[in-house]
Description:
This protein has about 220 residues and is an all-alpha fold. Helices cover about 65% and strands about 0% of the residues.
Amino acid sequence: MATKVGAKQKRPLKGLLNSSTKRMMTQAGMELRSFVLHTALQLEWYSVRMLAILLDVDRNNSVVCGNTSRSLSFDARMQLLMEMRAWGPEHKTKLLWFMQLRNQMMHNYDARTMVECMSFTQVKPKELLKAFPQEHSLPEEEQLTRALLSLSDYVLQSSNELMIAALDKMMLQSHLQMGIIDEIAKNHLAGVYDARRARPVAAAPSQSSEARKDEKGTP
């Protein structure tokens, strides 16, 4: 029988895992890894669409932007976008941080915590916490985990803004070719695009102790 549209989907995997497997997954830091994977999937969604816009290709019929075995890998797509200068310097630095953390989380079993993960990368805890400050009273692992959440928000927000900017530029070129706008307007709008590409994205604020109290239901 077909599942009704809108019906709540069950998750059969959860019921199939025995207690030993669940314990091993917890020990492997799968909750943290799952969050990183979810962010990476969203980032790849943006990257595919940005490449299609910038390369002016149909992503549904593209090898570069497709999902076949011949398509570019996540790392290759991100590297191509960086070489096309889709990101400004500050965006690029933080994107490289996330990519290093993502690679370790996805491929290194020993990267079970943020402290362990960062020990395998060139990302220094002090740099990450300087970019995304946290309360010093928190344990190091919690500080770094919260900073990771902020970093993930940053790369996704910046990717969203840059995709919008790329769409703006595509529309600008189209309107110029159609004679809808003149050269003066083109130069002005191009400047707006470049400013948006270089503009730093505000870091997600760290949670205050009051915010954490609210989460726990403390009045």
